[in-house]
Structure formats: C-alpha cells, structure tokens
From TrEMBL, chains A, B:
Keyword annotations: Amino-acid biosynthesis, Coiled coil, Cytoplasm, NADP, Oxidoreductase, Proline biosynthesis
Protein name (record): Gamma-glutamyl phosphate reductase
Protein species of origin: Pseudobacteroides cellulosolvens ATCC 35603 = DSM 2933
GO BP field: L-proline biosynthetic process
Reactions catalysed, as given in the entry: L-glutamate 5-semialdehyde + phosphate + NADP(+) = L-glutamyl 5-phosphate + NADPH + H(+)
Pathway(s) the chain acts in: Amino-acid biosynthesis; L-proline biosynthesis; L-glutamate 5-semialdehyde from L-glutamate: step 2/2
Role according to the record: Catalyzes the NADPH-dependent reduction of L-glutamate 5-phosphate into L-glutamate 5-semialdehyde and phosphate. The product spontaneously undergoes cyclization to form 1-pyrroline-5-carboxylate.
Keyword NADP among UniProt keywords: yes
Ranges of residues in domain Aldehyde dehydrogenase: 8-278, 302-368
One Pfam family, short name: Aldedh
Group of enzyme by EC: oxidoreductase
Membership in a protein family: Belongs to the gamma-glutamyl phosphate reductase family.
Subcellular location: Cytoplasm
GO cellular component entries: cytoplasm
Length: 431, 431
C-alpha cells in the first residue's frame, strides 16, 4: 500500500473505531497485553538485532540504553496497558446538555479526533504506549519510529495489530510507516490525518511544524527557567535549581536559564554555584553575575538556547516583572518555576508567565505525564490551543454536538411561532 | 505602527489582560455599552457613509442589508454586551486538581489563549460581538473587517478601544487592521498571534488556512446533508428538508445534498419535490432519482459543491451505511441530519457521521451559536481539534498547569525516597 491508501484505510477504520464500546476496546487491550507476554521472546530477539546493529553503527551509549527492550521493559508496558484498561472510556461522555426548546435537546459529547500520525524517537516502549493510548481513545494511528529500533518496532506493531484485529478492532486502525519519504507523504495527507504528534529533536519537530497543513501538537524547544525571588529560602532555591538543571539534563523540562533577583544574588549565587560545581555544571553568567561569582560570560544567544547539557545561563534581574518579561520573551512556553515565600508574588508569576506549566517552589522536572498522574503521555505540548503541557488520553479526545428533535425547524423560531428556552439540563446523552 | 509592532503590543497586552479580574473586564464591558449608547449618532453617521458609498459601488442588496447598522442594531449589540457581562468569568476556573504528594499540588486552570486575529465579513455587529467576546475571555484581538464597512468599523473599534482603555484595560489589546497587505503580514506573525479565526467566503478562508503557520479555526465549506431513512415520517422529513434547504440559503448550515433510502424514495421524493418547487429550488438528482421525479441530472461535482443557493442535489442510497459513507466522503464535517423513527439507527448515525454537528429529526439550520444558547459566537469550526461546531466564549479559552510545592525535587522520587500519591482532590486553585 502507498501512503495515501494507508491513510484512507486509517480514516475508514477511525469511523468504526469511534463507535466501539469501552468494553470492546478494553478486550482488545487485554489481548495486546496477553500477546506481548506470550511473544516476549520474539520481541527480545528482535531488540537484540537492533542493539547489535546499533552498536556496530556506534550509536551513543545513552541512546543504546533507551533502545534496550528487555523482559523488565516488557513487563512495564504490560503494566501500563493494565492501568489504561482500568481508566474509564473517554469517548461518549456528555460534557453539557441544553434543552433548546421542548423536545429539542442539545448534547455536547466526547468523541475521538480521528487519525493521529505519530513520529517518535528510539524508545520502543513509546510505540506500545502511544498506540494503546490511541486505541483507548478510539483513534486510528500511523506510527513512524526511529530506524535504530526498526526490528523491535516491527514486531511490536505486528503483535498489537494482530491482537487487536483478533479482538474485533477494524483493519487498518494501526499502521507502521518506515521511510522518511513516507513521512513526507504523510505530512501532505491533511484530508485524512487530523493531528500529527512529533517527538524527536528540536530541528526535526520544527521541520514537521513548518511542513504540514495538519495541526501539530508537540514542542520544539524546552527552554525552562527558574526564578529566585528576593525573599526565597536559599537552601530550598539551591535544591530546586540543582534538581531542575541536573536531575536529567537531556530532557525538555530541564532548566536552561536561572534568573535571580538582584537583592538575593550576593547570598544565593555562591551557594548555588557550590552545588552546581559539584555536578559539573558550566555556568554562563551575565555581567552582574560575573561580578559576584566566577563564570563564563553569557551572550544574547544563551538566553535562547536549549543546552540539553550540563550548562546553565544565569542572569540577575531587578525584580519579578523583569524576570517574567525575560521568560515570556526567551522561553518556549514549556515550564517555568518561581522560588519565593510570598504567596501573592507566586500567584502573580503563575498568572503572568505564559507557559503551559508554571510552578511555585518545586523543580521544573515535575512537568511530565507520569509525574502528573496521567498514567502515560503522548507528548508535551507547547501550543496554545487544544492541549497544553503533558498530554494524556484527553488530548486525543474532542467532542461533537448531537441534537435530538422531533421535527423541529428553524423557520418556527425566526417567525416567532416558537421561542428558545435554552435551559441547562444535566442529562447524559440518552441514545 | 507596522504589523509586527501591532502584534508585539497585542502580545504584551495579552499577558496583562490574562491576569485581570472578571470584575475589571466587566467594568470595561459596561463602559463599552455606555459609550456605544452615548456615541450612537456618530456610529449611524459613519454607517450612512458606508451605505452611500457601497450603493454607488453597486453592492448587492443582501450585502447592503447586512452592512446597515442602525439604532436597533446598536441596541442589539448593547443587549449582547449586557448578557456577556452576566456570564461567569471563563478565566481562572480550576478544571482539575491532584495531590501529587504531600504538599505538592497540581491544578489545571483555565486561561486565555493570548492573541487572536479575526478576519470577518461585512456585518459591523460582528466587530462588536467578537471584540467583546475576546475581552471577556482575556484575549487580545487584531480585527480586519470588510472594506464596505470601513467607516462603521473604524468608529466602532475606536469607541471600544477608548472605553476599555478608560476602564483600565492594557493599551494595544485591540487593534484594527485595514489593508490586505496587513492581513498577509498578520498571517506570518506566528511568534505573536496564537489563533486566526477567518469568517468570509470559502475561497478566502481556504486561502488563509493554506497560508499561515498560525492555527486557524473556522470552516471553508458547509456541505450539509439530510438523510431520510426508510422508516421516516414523510411529513416530518419534508418539513425538515425544506427548512434545511430554504430557510436561508446563503449560509453554511443550509443543506446542499439530500440522501434518500431507496425504500422510501417512491413515496417521499414526489412529496418533497412539491414543497421545494414552491420555494423555487432546483433539484439535481442521481439517475435513480430521475426515475421517480423529473429533475436535472446531478454530476459527481454536485456531491462536493456548496451551492449557497436554491439548488439541492439528491441521491438515492441503498441503506444508512451508504448514506454515512457518502457524508463522510463528500461532506465538510459541518452539520448532517438523519430523519428516522428508529432510535438505534439515529444513535448509530450520530456516532458514525464524522461532523461537528449531528442531528436527529431536526433542521440543519439549528447549528448556530445563538440557537445553541451560547449568546454569541466567534464562528463555526469544522476542524477536529480544540473546538468544533459553533464556538462561543469557551473556544477562546485554554488552560495551564499550576504546580505548588514546598521545595519538592524530582530526585527524591527517582531515588525512591518519596513516592507519588496522585490523589484526585476537588479543590480550587488556592492562590
């Protein structure tokens, strides 16, 4: 099949999928869990091939680690599927209901989005998580995984497809695509694909965002900030900044820039430097920072750079307003934290910083679907519509309006034979 | 100011606007209502200029009618503002709350989207409705109205700007742009503008959708269907089809195609033809239709055409599945209705038709923000994410995650010193 045929099949399947009951979808998920368990040796064998090939190709050690998909990883994804099964069906929930007039009832009811195209990095567990999230939410999915994980992804997609079709899911609801040219084709399928979720390098995500008419949910940069207000508890601030920067540097929710109120800088900077030095963090400071601690010089570029490394840019600001302005200018709308004892200042910061995740007195590293308790996430969004921050099941859901009448026509209302009641009811969609 | 300066000012203003209380915004809306009343003669005078010029330029009569903005229209928009004031503030509502761990509380809280660019057709009341909806929801707005209404739009935008700035709204939250080249510039401002809502001709909306990286909410086509099932009440079906087609033909929610189950076609088609003939509707039928009633022949193009005129394409289908397939292939995801006595068939149709508005036994013409009881609408969306169908205040709202801690760091959880509770609470955001 070519890309268009795959997309058309996915669209057709999505219509059928949207009408399936939660029980049907859960049975399919149960079968996936069962088959993953039964066929785990095949998976491990395929993964061994990927690991061997990637080692030969000198894939970096951290990537090799992410690529590894062993018995314990398989157990993890099976656990994930089981907790997904325990969640309520997100489809068919009545969000609101209005009696427009006697016998004319409007319901806003949740439904799947349709067809989701997902492009993701090396970890094979992402394939299982994402496709099961799509199934639970009733969406068809087109998957493009990293080529390092080619064999593992193939067997995983095959097992999921077989197990779900066997359990009555429609043919074509899940497809794997493998080549870059297929991805280019996919980005043109705005007639069939409703949403693209890219997970990969910044350049790659930006490339996707710039090259498709299909809506894209995701994030390119993660330029996260910590701001230390003048009244901050210095020990707490040191702890939070160190965790935000160093707990795991290669991820989007790691802090890249530290902003410090000038009134606390003299006390705070030497203290935080001591901890950051221990972790091997290179500090790039503005001129004022360099007057207090010994650091490299930060340039304008540093404020707009996501290092994803043991590097932190540091700037002294006059007050919180300047910090907020800096964050809204140079940040990426991902995650930003303030450390302060002052509740009103915190409230103001959380309101005025225009980011999907805004934190008071805790580490930026918390912005993550698992830590937020979503079970699994399809990604983190920095867009301003539809869904922001970590996106779980409900980012894959939308709604439609269902109107039930009994021969009602608009002419009766425009000629004032009848008038609207618009009475809010609290009823579930009845049919 | 050039377009970029306008957009930057709007972005800066949106940050301030997002933190204003509902009372502040309502006071500004009250002042708008007051000033529109006080300065109504200026408005009527400006509108007279537009009407005179447009008459000279031979603007079509229906468009002249929409352009007219007299005392009663002014009273209408003032009423609209008053009902908007009575609505609760959509910003700052806690959607969900979770205790991640002791002292670490996550809140999902509504907030404005940011900067909205709106391009709309001739009716000047749209300017007032849209800008007051944006104000109530805390969004900055860039407005481009139709050139026919130039003078009316100028005075209206000026009054709204003056009245709101006087009431303490931030400078730059509202700007009017007037030229086509400014629109082209606006579409490039994806760094500052978060959402574009175009309201105009199909070609125009499609042009916007194809020429901006900014998310676009709206609809190009409105190819709406009525499907008459075999068991339909024929009188009811005739009434609904006639209303859907003829109640107002020049609008997106008018029916363009009628699908009829073959088992009822012999009885139904002559009956509906009689009514449609009375209204002067040209019928274009498939071959089977032509075997029952005397009509022009429909071509393949007819199924994909939005006539916006007294023309209806009619097709006989074998069963509901074929109707649903036709609608999902040729429809525009706007509004589609089934006429049937069978509850199960209705439920299935409403579930399987992939449109924002799906109706049982009532006219397609009901899909409208006013009829739905939203008070006002910014437009109707056929996109699959963020908002579908008629979009009122809540389509201008998104959310952010606010996390409150007390020195919490992720390292404690990854080293298993602490574990997450993920306890759903039902608390409002406390600060």
């Amino acid at each position: 099949m070519n890309m268009q045929e795959i997309a058309i099949k996915a669209k057709d399947a999505s219509i059928k999928l949207s009408a399936l009951s939660g029980e049907m979808k859960n049975r399919a998920l149960e079968n996936v869990a069962k088959k993953l368990q039964e066929r785990k040796n095949e998976i491990i064998e395929a993964n061994r091939e990927d690991l061997l090939r990637s080692e030969k190709e000198n894939l970096a050690a951290p990537l090799l680690k992410r690529l590894k998909f062993d018995e314990s990883k398989i157990a993890d994804v099976i656990d994930g599927i089981k907790s997904l099964i325990s969640l309520p069906d997100p489809v068919g929930k009545t969000i609101s209901s209005t009696e427009l007039d006697e016998g004319l009832e409007l319901y806003r009811v949740t439904c799947p989005i349709g067809v989701i195209g997902i492009i993701f990095e090396s970890r094979p567990d992402a394939l299982v998580q994402i496709s099961t999230l799509c199934l639970k939410s009733g969406n068809s999915v087109l998957l493009k995984g990293g080529s390092e994980a080619r064999e593992t992804n193939r067997i995983l997609a095959k097992i999921i497809e077989d197990a779900t079709i066997e359990a009555g899911m429609p043919q074509g609801w899940i497809s794997q695509i493998e080549t870059r040219s297929d991805v280019s084709e996919m980005l043109k399928m705005d007639g069939y694909i409703d949403l693209i979720i890219p997970r990969g390098s910044n350049e790659f995500v930006r490339h996707i965002m710039n090259n498709s008419k299909i809506p894209v949910m995701g994030h390119a940069d993660g330029i996260c900030h910590c701001y230390v207000e003048e009244d901050a508890d210095i020990d707490m601030a040191v702890k939070i900044v160190t965790d935000s920067k160093t707990q795991y540097v290669a991820v989007c929710n790691a802090a890249e820039t530290l902003l410090v109120n000038e009134k606390i800088a003299g006390d705070f900077l030497p203290a935080v430097k001591q901890q950051l030095d221990k972790k091997g963090v290179e500090i790039r400071g503005c001129e004022k920072v360099q007057g207090i601690i010994d650091t490299k010089a930060a340039t304008m570029d540093d404020w707009a750079t996501e290092y994803l490394d043991y590097i932190l840019s540091v700037k002294i600001v006059k007050n919180m307003d300047e910090a907020i302005e800096h964050i809204n200018r140079y940040g990426s709308g991902h995650t930003d934290a303030i450390i302060t004892k002052d509740k009103n200042k915190a409230a103001s910061f959380l309101s005025l910083v225009d980011s999907g995740n805004v934190f008071w007195n805790c580490s930026t590293r918390f912005s993550d679907g698992f830590r937020y308790g979503f079970g699994a996430e399809v990604g983190i969004s920095t867009s301003k519509i539809h869904a922001r921050g970590p996106v779980g099941l409900d980012g894959l859901i939308i709604y439609k309006y269902k109107l039930i009448g009994n021969g009602h026509i608009v002419d009766d209302y425009s000629t004032h034979v009848k008038t609207f009641k618009h009475k809010k009811t609290h009823k579930n969609f009845p049919i």
